[in-house]
TrEMBL record:
Signal peptide: 1-17
Organic solvent tolerance-like N-terminal domain residues: 43-197
Keyword vocabulary terms for this entry: Cell outer membrane, Membrane, Signal
Family matches, as Pfam families: OstA_2
PANTHER family: LPS-ASSEMBLY PROTEIN, LPS-ASSEMBLY PROTEIN LPTD
Full protein name: Organic solvent tolerance protein OstA
Source lineage: Bacteria, Pseudomonadati, Bacteroidota, Flavobacteriia, Flavobacteriales
């Protein structure tokens, strides 16, 4: 009882008994030398509630009195307990040592080996095994600075933050207790059950579970580290696993990389989208797709690109370029071996394709990249050199090792046209057509064609003049048979076989009228011809149509001679005179 009475008496007279030696403070708690002394109201003073002993030792704590044994002090509703407390009454400042615990009015609790607290500024420092806990999380560090007026806590000596599910490692952090926002800087790492988030600056809202990124940040899938998200500015909803990416962002999934100006990715559904300068890179398949808008579906292993998209299949010798209104790529297990995946590319609406030795367009194009098979649907047209192939459907077969086209299959209304002499503008074209056609390539050029079903051909025939050793036009051969075998040479089309109901007639140039020199459905196209890869970037390059001059001089002279002979015969006939 005497001790308690003495303690109460001491507390009431403490302001007169304290030594005035200024306390040595942590730099965080230093007040400017120019600052005026603070006139503290009695109700704003730090109050001693309990202590087992009061001690004053000239050799200890600069002669200031201190309290030991279950010490409890209070300030503005917050309660600090410790094994030992030094109270600098005139400065309204305390130092607490041993098992310190600060209970704040907002429900947060700080425990540490020692603390310093300024009652005037309501700022404090906690050291040694510091732990701050509140209903949202637990912070552990070596030194923690806190400000009760702004309700902030800060550390820069490295620490961890745990919310029961996720653990955050960071060099420094500022915790805003009112908003429950943590501003993390310096080698930040957030370890969640499914993902690891790493970056230099992350702001995390513990109420909404939303993180904002500034600087190079990566979200890595722990089960599959190759699947990850990278951004230099973005937002991540940790509960729904949604990422909103706004600067230099990339989504890595299934060995592919999606980039764009603005991106969204849902890690739970595997759906992602991007707008502005979008590119889907597939290094394994050696192919990339570019466009203005793109979507990826990780679980289906598929992607879609629109807004002027184009795709490039990179090859060592000769790459292939595709363009259309919409491009889709996907992978599917091989039917013969589910462990092997095959890659496919689809180009829809006004599809175009470019390769140095073959260019084409169709309503849609389907390309089996693994097997090297390309299907062209609806009004397909394929150019190769000065040769053109059309039909209801065209199939191109590539040699996946040499990267060259081996052959074409033209199904329905097959029609092949070749310019007789590419160096002139003469209106002369070799033609072969039928129901079905197989075209064979040799050294990247069309070499041979086999036509089956109602096969017909129009072929310009030349011979070599024995004196001049120059080619001399003999005439045009019209052939019709069940099956035609044709050989494409440098300037000629040679019919090497014509079987099943074959008819073949050669007409000199003076005997064949111009209308019979072309089939009625002749469709040589120079306006839409793709001549360089950049031409695929527009619906049509819209080149000026090449105007060819028809060489009908011999036929016209023959017809003129016929007319003269007919006129002579008419003149010999007696004229009937009307009486």
């Amino acid at each position: 009882m005497r001790i308690i009475l003495f303690l109460l008496l001491f507390i009431s007279t403490l302001s007169f008994a304290q030594d005035k030696t200024p306390v040595k403070r942590d730099p965080y708690l230093q007040t400017p030398s120019s600052a005026r002394p603070v006139q503290t109201k009695p109700e704003d003073k730090v109050k001693i509630i309990h202590a087992d002993k009061i001690i004053k030792d000239p050799e200890k704590y600069e002669g200031n009195q201190y309290f030991t044994g279950n010490v409890q002090i209070e300030h503005q509703g917050s309660v600090l307990t410790a094994d030992e407390v030094i109270l600098y009454n005139e400065e309204n400042f305390v130092k607490a040592i041993g098992n310190t615990r600060l209970q704040n009015t907002d429900g947060s609790v700080i425990t540490a080996g020692e603390m310093e607290y300024d009652g005037n500024t309501q700022k404090g420092v906690a050291r040694k095994n510091v732990v701050l806990t509140d209903p949202k999380q637990t912070i552990k560090t070596d030194i923690l600075y806190y400000d009760r007026i702004s309700n902030q806590a800060y550390f820069n000596t490295g620490g961890t933050i745990s919310d029961g599910q996720n653990i955050t490692y960071t060099k420094s952090a500022t915790y805003f207790l009112n908003t429950k926002i943590v501003d993390l800087t310096g080698n930040v790492k957030i370890d969640t059950p499914q993902y690891i988030i790493e970056g230099p600056n992350i702001k995390q809202n513990q109420n909404t579970k939303v993180a904002d990124f500034t600087g190079p940040t990566t979200i890595t899938n722990k089960a599959n580290p190759k699947n990850r998200v990278y951004t230099e500015r973005g937002t991540y909803k940790m509960e729904t696993k949604e990422a909103f990416l706004n600067k230099n962002s990339k989504i890595f999934y299934n060995d592919k990389i999606l980039t764009g100006d603005d991106m969204y990715y849902n890690q739970l559904s595997g759906f992602g989208k991007a707008t502005g300068n979008v590119m889907l890179d597939d290094p394994k398949e050696k192919r990339y797709i570019k466009g203005g808008y793109g979507e990826v579906f990780e679980k289906k292993d598929s992607a879609m690109m629109t807004k002027n998209p184009y795709a490039v299949k990179v090859m060592e010798k000769d790459s292939i370029y595709f363009a259309a209104e919409k491009i889709i790529s996907y992978q599917r297990p091989d039917s013969s071996d589910i462990k092997v995946k095959k890659s496919y590319l689809r180009a829809y609406k006004k599809a175009r394709v470019y390769k140095s030795n073959a260019q084409g367009r169709a309503d849609s194009i389907a390309f089996n990249e693994t097997d090297g098979i390309m299907h062209m649907y609806t009004q397909p047209i394929l150019w190769s050199g000065e040769k053109q192939v059309t039909g209801d459907k065209v199939e191109a077969y590539f040699n996946t090792k040499t990267e060259d086209i081996d052959s074409l299959k033209v199904i329905g209304n097959a029609f092949a046209i070749s310019k007789v002499d590419s160096l002139t503008l003469k209106d002369e074209f070799n033609q072969v057509k039928g129901k079905f056609m197989t075209v064979y390539y040799e050294k990247n050029a069309i070499k041979e064609a086999k036509v089956i079903g109602n096969a017909q051909s129009i072929v310009y025939v030349d011979d070599t003049d024995q004196e001049t050793k120059k080619p001399e036009r003999i005439g045009i051969t019209l052939s019709a048979c069940g099956i035609i075998g044709a050989l494409f040479e440098e300037r000629a089309l040679q019919i090497i076989s014509c079987s099943i109901g074959a008819t073949s007639d050669t007409y000199p140039m003076s005997k064949i009228e111009p209308a019979r020199r072309k089939f009625p459905d002749f469709n040589w196209n120079t306006k839409d011809r793709i001549r360089k890869w950049q031409d695929i970037l527009v619906d049509s390059p819209n080149y000026e149509e090449i105007k060819y001059s028809a060489d009908t001089e011999l036929y016209d002279k023959a017809q003129e001679a016929v007319e003269k002979e007919r006129a002579k015969e008419e003149a010999k006939k007696p004229k009937r005179v009307r009486k």
